[in-house]
Here is the input.
Amino acid sequence: MPPPKDVVKIAIQMVGAIPQLIDLQQTKPLASVLKDVCDAWSLPNAEHYALQYTDGRQTYITESVRRPPTSPRPHRHRAHPSPLPFSLQNRGEIKNGSILRLTTSPDQEAERLYSGIQSNNSDVKTDSLKKLASLSQDVTFAQEFINRNGLKKIFHIVEEGNDTGEMLAHTLKAFMELMEHDFVSWETLSAAFIKKIVTYVNMNAVDASVQQLSLSILENMVPTSRVLFELVKKEVTLDRLLTHLQVTNAQLQLKAMALLIALLLAATDAERREMMDYLREKNIRQFIHKNIIHSSEPLADEMAHYLYVLQSVSLNLCERRMRTSMDPYSQEQRELLQSLRQTAFESESEAPTGNFSTERRRSLCAKEFRKLGFVNNSNPAEDLRRAPPGLLALDNMVYFSRHTPNAYSRFVLENSSREDKHECPFARSSIQLTLILCEILHVGEPCSETAQAFYPMFFGQDHFFEELFCICIQLVNKTWKEMRATQEDFDKVLQVVREQITRTLSLKPTSLELFKTRVNALNYSEILKLRQTERLHQEETLAVPVLELRERLKPELLELIRQQRLLHLCEGTLFRKISSRRRQDKLWYCRLSPNHKVLHYGDVEEGVNSPPIESLPEKIPVADMKTLLVGKECPHTKEKSSGKQNKDVLELAFSIVYDMEEYCLNFIAPTRYEFCLWTDGLNVLLGKEMTSERTQTDLDVLLSMELKLRLLDLENISIPDTPPPIPKPPSNLNFCYDFSHAEQ
Here is the structure.
């Protein structure tokens, strides 16, 4: 007879005592359970004790689910948003075989540490602060400590103390952990406390760990209110942040970059533009390109995300011009437009026009604007009324004409000498190309919370967008000539150019010069070859006999993919814990047991790539797994806002529902690739079909390889759509040789 659902068999430990093996009744009040445990060890005052997990984060066992924080949480950018797998630990999650520890209750421990951090003995005070930093991760303890006005004592230690070493580091760490639970608003911090934190950031002779924690505190303050943003922006200058970025300590460098990104995201458009202009003056791009992207150490995921955000913020400075139509009554914009004509036809413009009538001059200007490729040559401003790309297209044309005047003049004059139908219209091409570049580079789109895909060449060049345009507009002219295009082919040419740009960018060139070399090498004939190869591959796979062979091969190859997915789950993946308030450096790892029967997971330290399965304390039997949820169905995505910034989070979220559909283990994959492999693997364990797009991609690749191997002997031989007819059997079989007569 199976044991009752509400009874679990557990072990309880205590230092210096023999462990107890008990049947825990989940319906029995926790106070009664503690009384029975204490009575077994003859311990008085059972109310002074609590049960605690021995593994993982050693969370206190609570009677009910912890209440959610009541204070608002600001939106933050993170590289790998993922929930804390242990954020709602309570007695209902105790499983058979769990090992608990009898320890001092949270209120008693909070009282003891509250007294300890006020001790005059520096050793006692330091030890108390160290223990406080560790226990403050638990929300039950944190609430008890904060209820005793413990944060006020921490503020006092920071504001009045002169220590800049280990004691201060433990104090700041404890403060960060306590604030993480959102019982107290960041806006309640005193001016003296904030000033002290700023001092630690601006000091030179201070422990690196103190500076890292101080930078993290300021990073958390910035998005909470406009007042705190302005205070931090004023007190911590960009020069100081740049100084921290230039240190060799990777963690300090990372925290400085995090604060810089937080300031940029919280700033207004005007402030952001001013900050980016200042950073450009200080050559931050060149420094990042040389000392961070191309450093000897591999680029961390968090730093990759921050570089992506910095790239996105910088490119989004173009959004205002991109969405602004040209004003035909603006003198400044009209002068920019006229400068294009004057630069291209300077020698002609120098001809005496004094004797020309107004109508004659207008006719000459219209003719020159037509040569420039404007559709509405009598009023070229009309061509720039479409937004996007708006004035950004005009800016790009002016930049091209001023910074590469020879290439600009060659483009315009070369096409002016062609037949009307074969000339490549510069202005029309520039307007469409600007729009294509905005779409490829996601100008005007909100920053992703998880993306890490930045272009290294972006940081190697000032005026990146304009310089990229200069290369690509010349590519348009080159491709136009290669295609021998006419005006009717305009859209086809720009489609080829888009393909040339996207294919080259996918190679992640490290500099614009390398991009220029590669994109020019990918000429129209190469594009045709690539398209032909792809088309032939598609055609040969559509023949009826080949389709039949594909269907026969599919089950075997799908099984191969299933085995690969399970093998990936056995190797495991590192997930990053993220609270709703901020990025955290804490990590957790999840992997499948070699016999495919248990999922193991637990906390790991930074730098641990593949922890042994024995070090992962938490377990979920595969037999208890009921279903897999993805995207909006996941409980941890429902808690988040539904804005555009969380779209990428929804695409990476999945949850395992287990144990009679009562509990969930929530994930947000680091990449889309990991999401596909994990959801496929979990579906295999659940006996369901693999549904990710990666499955179809892998299946197509494997089928293609297998078909090519099978059809190798039939190269250059056309395969008929129908099999050849089977000949009729012969009228007699007298031609058969009888071996029995030969033996006689």
